[in-house]
């Protein structure tokens, strides 16, 4: 299978790869002129690219017309994840990318064990993890990780940009299959679905009420207690399966 790289420099049948990825392809992989790789523009289109030249920290290509990436789901899912302790968020990002999530939005809430600390620095690492996971699993879109919301109310105000917000809350709620079936399909874009899961301590009752008032729909994840790093991936898997995106 050809190696896979992301670049925004694709136009008029030509493309360029720079920086660390160019160094990896040229020096580590020892690529040759005429060798083919797959280039992705990060927006869902991928290209078969033939290497035409090398220079310092730069690889140049001739590319075909491009095709939509077969790896991208027909829905755009955002995982809103209560900020967990240790490296659990990294696990959610890595595996969430593999399962098809497009965006990750961490947030701090009342019962979070973790506290905000060096978030800009950690965000660079989180986006690098998403980037590497996207390359590894063959994605055509480059998922992104936002800086965390430190105000739960501000997070709730962002719900208006989604077609469906699923609040995974203890005690269960409406059947996921029903909620997905009742969500109107937009005419000119993919449906935007957000999945909201708590940190180790879950949600305070006030926060759950705030989310519902902002338009979230409560959904259950079965009778078992799921860990904070398991719940978003379980919900994402279920959404992808029920919408035909794991077939």
Task: Report what the structure shows.
There is one protein chain. The protein is 30% helix and 25% strand. The protein has 247 residues and is an alpha/beta fold. The chain has 2 domains: 65 residues, Beta Barrel (Ribosomal Protein L25, Chain P); 167 residues, Alpha/beta knot, CATH 3.40.1280.10. Strands 1, 2, 3, 4, 5, 6 and 7 form a 7-stranded mixed β-sheet that branches. A 6-stranded parallel β-sheet has the order 10-9-8-12-11-13, sandwiched between helices. The radius of gyration is 20 Å and the shape is elongated. The two termini are 22 Å apart. The mean pLDDT is 93.
Q: Helices and strands in order, then pairings?
A:
Elements: E1 4-6, E2 10-11, E3 14-18, H1 19-28, E4 36-40, E5 45-55, E6 58-63, E7 67-68, E8 76-82, H2 88-99, E9 103-107, H3 119-137, E10 144-145, H4 152-157, E11 164-168, H5 176-182, E12 192-197, H6 205-213, E13 217-219, H7 231-242
Parallel strand pairs: 1-4, 8-9, 8-12, 9-10, 11-12, 11-13
Antiparallel strand pairs: 2-3, 3-6, 4-5, 5-6, 5-7
Helix pairs in contact: 2-3, 2-7
Give a quick summary of the entry:
With 247 residues, this protein is an alpha/beta fold. 30% of the residues lie in helices and 25% in strands. It has two domains: 4-68, Ribosomal Protein L25, Chain P (Beta Barrel), CATH 2.40.240; 76-242, SPOUT methyltransferase, trefoil knot domain (Alpha/beta knot).
Query: Helix amount, in percent?
Result: 25-40%
Shape: elongated
- Name the average pLDDT: 93
Name of the CATH architecture of the largest domain: 3-Layer(aba) Sandwich
Number of helices: 7
